[in-house]
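Example 9 (inverse folding). The structure is encoded as follows.
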């Protein structure tokens, strides 16, 4: 890889992690499609690097909030969701590996991921725009929380996005959380799904090829982005986070359309 690409990867991981920490979407939902668009690494390598970056950012954000005493994570629902997400992280990684093994042309896997992400992002944007008119719920059943977390974990790990917009919509709809509370709970869920996804990759020895320097740069970008995003999130209100989130959905959809065209 050329030297300037390392700078681009660092900038993408930092910028995406800033937005991810503010909105609670993990950052992978931007990192994965953006880096796919450059076409300099395999789909598997970018998925792995994106997951590691999201893991570092979410770990910093969750631990820092807990130590600072300003965590908004509802442990009664957040923990069962995180347990489900952890199981889903393993299942999603297995699904991705199965799909990768099934196709000889790895670009086809990237196209499938891009199509899935486009549909999820479009649905998320529609819901977010109309969420004030949609009746929400207060799910408290532990089994139901685990099942919901399982689905979130599968989506997160399979798409290599950390969690993304679907987490927020689920937390809005099933648990009636406000924007900032949903953002923190989303990062908590993402943390668990990415940990198990990483462990599964290491245990099954399916770690793709990549530069160690690139991994270090992206993880550093994730942590620094988490620090900056957390600081910004504390200074702005929920309505600003909402507008940023909707604008972000539009950007992600455009990148997905480009990637579908590129991979097909």
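The amino acid assigned to each position is listed next.
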């Amino acid at each position: 890889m050329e030297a300037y690409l390392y700078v681009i990867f660092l900038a993408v991981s930092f910028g995406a992690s800033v937005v991810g920490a503010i909105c609670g979407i993990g950052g992978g939902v931007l990192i994965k499609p953006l880096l796919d668009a450059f076409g300099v690494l395999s789909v598997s390598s970018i998925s792995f690097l994106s997951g590691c970056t999201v893991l570092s950012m979410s770990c910093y954000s969750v631990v820092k909030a807990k130590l600072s005493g300003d965590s908004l994570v509802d442990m009664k629902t957040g923990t069962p969701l995180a347990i489900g997400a952890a199981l889903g992280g393993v299942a999603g990684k297995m699904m991705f590996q199965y799909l990768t093994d099934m196709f000889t042309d790895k670009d086809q896997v990237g196209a499938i991921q891009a199509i899935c992400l486009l549909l999820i992002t479009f649905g998320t944007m529609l819901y977010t725009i109309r969420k004030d008119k949609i009746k929400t719920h207060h799910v408290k059943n532990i089994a139901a929380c685990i099942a919901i977390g399982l689905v979130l974990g599968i989506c997160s790990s399979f798409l290599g996005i950390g969690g993304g917009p679907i987490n927020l919509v689920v937390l809005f709809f099933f648990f009636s959380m406000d924007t900032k509370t949903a953002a923190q709970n989303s990062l908590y869920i993402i943390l668990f799904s990415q940990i198990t996804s990483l462990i599964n990759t290491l245990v099954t020895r399916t770690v793709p090829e990549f530069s160690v320097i690139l991994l270090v740069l992206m993880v550093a970008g994730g942590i620094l982005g988490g620090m900056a995003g957390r600081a910004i999130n504390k200074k702005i209100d929920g309505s600003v986070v909402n507008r940023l989130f909707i604008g972000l959905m539009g950007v992600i959809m455009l990148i997905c359309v480009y990637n579908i065209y590129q991979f097909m």
